[in-house]
């Protein structure tokens, strides 16, 4: 729906607490593909109302570049969600691209947000459908329902995994959000990553991994980024400017792979259009229509990342 932001890159998605003016101002100068201004877990209950005003001012007044701009509202099981939406979407104007809904447990929660957004848009004169939705999957119930959640609204642009809340919901024996459990012989989130990715892609969504809370552990972050980037995720949350730099780099296709994908597209085009062949040799590999599809996705992602 929100056509401006749907296909913009989201390699790095920078989180900024909505209650902190300094962090909000700093976010503008950090080269993240997306910024989300948080009203949820990084804001204390006593600051929720004040944070709404700061977030509106930040959206309206700060010199944002053309990155995706989003607000994370509070989950539907709190008393704050509807006022977050009415106040922030109602006063932010056209620059706000999306609302992120945390702890989504069922498709009906996304539908409820979609309906509320339509009313707010009509009331304040925004085009209906202007605001997109990002859905966070971070509870056991949310994961069980992820397929219907991802199919629940045309406003959906991304689905996001929230490793910290998910570990709590699963009662996993870990105390840091987003890290691997060293005693597990494999990746304890592999099934979760794959399930969310499939549900997202089946509905044309971008798929994003959540935060890595050991913010000084660059090697650990690189390892973690490689896991989801290799599966095909579009990007990951960042909590600091240093994390943005690492994430942008790991989630960008290398120039070598990007150039190879281009060459596959060219070779396949020549084979099918000029030579009437469906399969052709490319170096020492056979390529066909499926190879074209893989290469086309790769090129699109590379172009989004500025290749
Ligand atoms: C993010 O919100 C998380 O819970 O990991
Ligand atoms: Mg969370």
TrEMBL record:
<keyword id="KW-0479">Metal-binding</keyword>
<feature type="binding site">
    <location>
        <position position="72"/>
    </location>
    <ligand>
        <name>substrate</name>
    </ligand>
</feature>
<keyword id="KW-0460">Magnesium</keyword>
<dbReference type="InterPro" id="IPR011206">
    <property type="entry name" value="Citrate_lyase_beta/mcl1/mcl2"/>
</dbReference>
<feature type="binding site">
    <location>
        <position position="138"/>
    </location>
    <ligand>
        <name>substrate</name>
    </ligand>
</feature>
<dbReference type="InterPro" id="IPR005000">
    <property type="entry name" value="Aldolase/citrate-lyase_domain"/>
</dbReference>
<dbReference type="InterPro" id="IPR040442">
    <property type="entry name" value="Pyrv_kinase-like_dom_sf"/>
</dbReference>
<dbReference type="GO" id="GO:0000287">
    <property type="term" value="F:magnesium ion binding"/>
</dbReference>
<keyword id="KW-0456">Lyase</keyword>
<dbReference type="GO" id="GO:0006107">
    <property type="term" value="P:oxaloacetate metabolic process"/>
</dbReference>
<dbReference type="InterPro" id="IPR015813">
    <property type="entry name" value="Pyrv/PenolPyrv_kinase-like_dom"/>
</dbReference>
<dbReference type="GO" id="GO:0016829">
    <property type="term" value="F:lyase activity"/>
</dbReference>
<dbReference type="Pfam" id="PF03328">
    <property type="entry name" value="HpcH_HpaI"/>
</dbReference>
<feature type="binding site">
    <location>
        <position position="138"/>
    </location>
    <ligand>
        <name>Mg(2+)</name>
    </ligand>
</feature>
<feature type="binding site">
    <location>
        <position position="165"/>
    </location>
    <ligand>
        <name>Mg(2+)</name>
    </ligand>
</feature>
<protein>
    <submittedName>
        <fullName>Citrate lyase subunit beta / citryl-CoA lyase</fullName>
    </submittedName>
</protein>
<feature type="region of interest" description="Disordered">
    <location>
        <begin position="1"/>
        <end position="20"/>
    </location>
</feature>
<feature type="domain" description="HpcH/HpaI aldolase/citrate lyase">
    <location>
        <begin position="11"/>
        <end position="241"/>
    </location>
</feature>
């Amino acid at each position: 729906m929100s056509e401006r932001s749907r296909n913009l890159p989201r390699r790095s998605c920078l989180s900024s607490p909505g209650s902190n003016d300094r962090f909000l101002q700093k976010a503008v100068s950090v080269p993240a593909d997306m910024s989300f201004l948080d009203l949820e877990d990084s804001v204390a209950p006593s600051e929720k109302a004040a944070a709404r005003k700061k977030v509106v001012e930040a959206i309206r007044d700060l010199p944002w570049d053309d990155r995706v701009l989003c607000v994370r509202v509070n989950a539907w099981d709190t008393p704050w969600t509807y006022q977050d939406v009415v106040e922030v979407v109602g006063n932010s104007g056209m620059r706000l691209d999306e609302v992120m809904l945390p702890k989504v447990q069922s498709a009906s929660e996304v539908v409820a947000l979609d309906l509320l957004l339509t009313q707010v848009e009509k009331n304040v004169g925004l085009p209906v459908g202007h605001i997109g939705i990002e859905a966070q999957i971070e509870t056991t119930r949310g994961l069980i329902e992820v397929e219907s959640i991802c199919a629940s609204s045309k406003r959906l642009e991304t689905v996001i995994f929230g490793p910290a809340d998910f570990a709590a919901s699963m009662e996993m024996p870990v105390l840091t959000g987003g890290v691997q459990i060293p005693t597990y012989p494999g990746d304890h989130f592999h099934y979760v990553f794959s399930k969310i990715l499939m549900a997202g892609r089946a509905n044309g969504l971008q798929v994003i991994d959540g935060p890595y809370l050991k913010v000084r552990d660059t090697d650990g972050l690189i390892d973690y980024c490689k896991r989801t980037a290799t599966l095909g995720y579009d990007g990951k949350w960042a909590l600091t400017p240093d994390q943005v730099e690492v994430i942008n780099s790991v989630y960008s296709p290398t120039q070598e792979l990007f150039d190879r994908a281009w060459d596959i597209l060219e070779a396949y085009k020549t084979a099918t259009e000029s030579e009437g062949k469906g399969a052709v040799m490319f170096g020492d590999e056979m390529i066909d229509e499926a190879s074209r599809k893989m290469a086309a996705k790769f090129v699109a992602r590379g172009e989004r990342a500025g290749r």
